[in-house]
Amino acid sequence: MVDYFHRSIHFAHCSSVIDWLSKCPEESLDDKSPTWNKGLIHYEGAPNIKMVNAYVAQFEKDMEMFFNARVREIVPGGMIVLISPQSTEHLAKIFGSSLMDLVNEGKFVESLVDSFNVPTYFPSPKGMTRVVDKNGCFSIERIDLTYPKSKLLDEADAKTLMINLRVVLEGLFVNYFGSEIAKEAFARTIVKSDEISTWMKKNYQKACQLFVALKRK
């Protein structure tokens, strides 16, 4: 499919794509590994720096493949714009806490939570600059954190946000925990909309989106 677009694209755009990893770091699946993420479902907020570094390494590997594919599609001098959300640490913690609530009620064993990780990574401007420079196929026109104006500031919209995230994440949860556990975990997370709304009011005034504009060399 890549060769079909061989050096024919003048402008490419990817939104909320590069933050999805091709897979979780393999070492994070081994309970004997120092990257084992006990009690958490994401690298953000993890006290284990080796876990974080494993996600960084997987992201850098995936981005190298991504850039190598795009360089075959985009004409010299062509542009690619990438948009990625920034930290969702608190949301990941809330989803994880809903799962742990079910564990504490005896609905399933904690080891299932320990071995489950959401395969997303949210690069910083510095981290994104590093992977672009390492690949060497694109020059940086702009890498910056931006704040797209948002009105997601009340409880109703917090519920809407969690419902939208459910659409994105439900397949992962169902495949790993089964439909009943996934359904109950999401229902419990939506009930926590007051907590989510408080977080949104505090953080949605900050830059929450990574904007990347690159030019094909």
From TrEMBL:
Q: Does the keyword Ion transport apply?
A: no
A single GO molecular-function term is:
methyltransferase activity
**Family annotation (Pfam families):** Methyltransf_7 (PF03492)
**InterPro entries xref list:** MeTrfase_7, MeTrfase_capping, SAM-dependent_MTases_sf
Q: Which SUPFAM superfamilies match?
A: S-adenosyl-L-methionine-dependent methyltransferases
Q: Would I find Flavoprotein among this entry's keywords?
A: no
Under Gene3D superfamilies, the record lists: Methyltransferase, alpha-helical capping domain, Vaccinia Virus protein VP39
GO annotations under biological process? methylation
**Keyword tags:** Magnesium, Metal-binding, Methyltransferase, Transferase
Family to which this protein belongs: Belongs to the methyltransferase superfamily. Type-7 methyltransferase family.
Protein name, as recorded: Uncharacterized protein
Record organism: Capsicum annuum
